[in-house]
Amino acid sequence: QVQVVESGGGLVQPGGSLKLSCEASGSIFTISAMGWYRQAPGKQRELVATMSTDGTTTYADSVKGRFTISRENAKNTVYLQMNSLKAEDTAVYYCIAEGLIGTSSSGDYWGQGTQVTVSS
Questions:
Q1: Spatial distance between the Cα atoms of 1 and 12, rounded to a whole number of angstroms
Q2: 98 by DSSP, 3-state: which?
Q3: What is the pLDDT of residues 101-120, one digit of tens each?
Q4: Contact call for residues 93 and 38 (beta carbons, < 8 A)
Q5: 14 alpha-carbon distance from chain centroid
Q6: Which of 16, 32, 18 shows the shortest CA–CA distance to 99?
Q7: What is the DSSP string of 41-77?
Q8: Other CB atoms within 10 Å distance of the CB of residue 50
Q9: Which helix (H) or strand (E) holds 29?
């Protein structure tokens, strides 16, 4: 059974930094891409950043230059370094493992989400 678990959220002041981590566990052969989405209250879930196995990255315009995604393929782990945080970055951040293939699993898998609050 595949599990996707995030960690690292919390409360930070504007201008501060946080690093999120996400690990996909279980009997996994490969994951095409891993990444982060976020959902603020009253808004739709939106893409933050993703990284494919070959290192290709995609960022939302709103986070370019401030957030950095990285990945350890061998550990099925993805990170999101968030710098220069703004109040509008406040949201629940969700990790996704896309195109996962395992011994008895396949498809896209989401984590349960981790809250990031940017406030003074």
A1: 34
A2: strand
A3: 999 889 999 999 999 999 99
A4: yes
A5: 20
A6: 32
A7: TTS--EEEEEEETT--EEE-GGGTTTEEEEEEGGGTE
A8: 21
A9: strand 28-30
